[in-house]
Amino acid sequence: MADKLSLIQIAESIQHISFLKDLPDTDEDERAALEQHLTDLSSRQEAKFDAVIGMIKKCDAYI
Fold first, then answer.
1. Which domain of life is it from (predicted)?
2. Structural domain boundaries of the chain?
């Protein structure tokens, strides 16, 4: 299934979650949950980037 977020939106989400994770008042449980969310977002970002590269390669093959 295609990811509904754009590559830029995912990158912005990663920045926001990283900022929240690094706040001094974030407890360890929240930090662990945010770290897991960061891992998931990074995986989505990689998959989205791979899909973009795949589309570029298909377009290049048609040209």
1. Bacteria
2. 7-62
